Amino acid sequence: MDARRKIIVMKAGGTTVGSPSRLREVCSLITRKLQEGYFVVPVFSALRWRGGQNLPQISITDSLLNFRFTIESDGLERFIRELWQPHVWLLRELDLISDSSYEKAYSRNLTFFQSSNKEDWHLLEPIWTEVRRLAAKASTYYDAPPAPSGLDSLVAGGERLMVHVVAGFLNSEWKRSQFPFRAQAQTARDVGILTDGQFGDANILQGTRYELIVLGNMLKCQRQKVVPIVTGFDGIHKETGQSRKPFHSQN
């Protein structure tokens, strides 16, 4: 691979990833740009589904922002469902899991996958792990309201969930030789992006030193023939120099 190829950053919004057809179009565009000689860094928002007539809208970001209200009114169980079920639905709509697997996963009959359906569990496990992590964080924050940085970390969980879905889809395409490189879920933090102290804004710091760090990580991905599927919000806070909770990619 030519390490000098131009890097393109592509951002997909929440309603795009909430539509299986539009998400497929984005992935086709990524494929086309890679084939044209560019190296694409796709950045994905949290899932947002507009709904339809007599159907509710779904916003994972809103679910995370309103965690206290949800837990107070309906308990932690509803909070978990709001995060888990839409992503399981999306996996089915992308033909990554069967209808029977969807029914079992939707109802959280997860022992079925761990014991007898390893391929589907490989897709579901990182999402379930992140949901559990977010539930534990929300439960803690319910008793002790978080600092702005803590709320940022919680809200960024929506994007961390989505990049697992997208990486899973692109890797399924890669296995069928329909996508040129392997995909890997990463956070902005993994890439090396630094943000300022305006929590809730995700302002990226400018400067040659910061840009070289990110560029070096992108060139490494190019050499390894890996396309990073990146969150757009979960960076490293400059004032503390601390990354948020480690992100363990399974893709």
Structural summary, described in words:
With 251 residues, the chain is α/β, with parallel strands linked by helices. The chain has one domain: Carbamate kinase (3-Layer(aba) Sandwich), CATH 3.40.1160. The protein is built from eleven helices and eight strands. Strands 1-2-7-5 form a four-stranded parallel beta sheet, with helices on both faces. A two-stranded antiparallel sheet has the order 3-4.
Question: Which helices and strands, and how do they pair?
Answer:
Layout lengths: L6 E6 L1 H4 L2 H16 L3 E6 L3 E2 L8 E2 H6 L1 H27 L5 H8 L4 H6 L1 H26 L4 H8 L1 H19 L6 E5 L1 H4 L2 E2 L12 H17 L1 E6 L4 E2 L14
Parallel strand pairs: 1-2, 2-7, 5-7, 6-8
Antiparallel strand pairs: 3-4
Helix pairs in contact: 4-5, 4-7, 4-9, 7-9
Q: Which of globular, elongated, flat, extended, rod-shaped describes the shape?
A: globular
CATH topology descriptor: Carbamate kinase
Count, helices? 11
Query: What is the CATH class designation?
Result: Alpha Beta
Spatial extent as radius of gyration: 18 Å
Number of strands: 8
Q: Report the uncertain regions.
A: 243-251
Specify the helix fraction band. Answer: 55-70%
Q: Which strand-content bin applies to the residues?
A: 5-15%
Q: Give the terminus-to-terminus CA distance.
A: 21 Å
* Overall tally of structural domains: 1
The named CATH superfamily: Acetylglutamate kinase-like
Structural class: alpha/beta
Strand order of the largest sheet: 1-2-7-5
Q: N-to-C SSE series? A: EHHEEEHHHHHHHEHEHEE
Average predicted local confidence, pLDDT: 86
CATH architecture label: 3-Layer(aba) Sandwich
Largest sheet: 4 strands, parallel
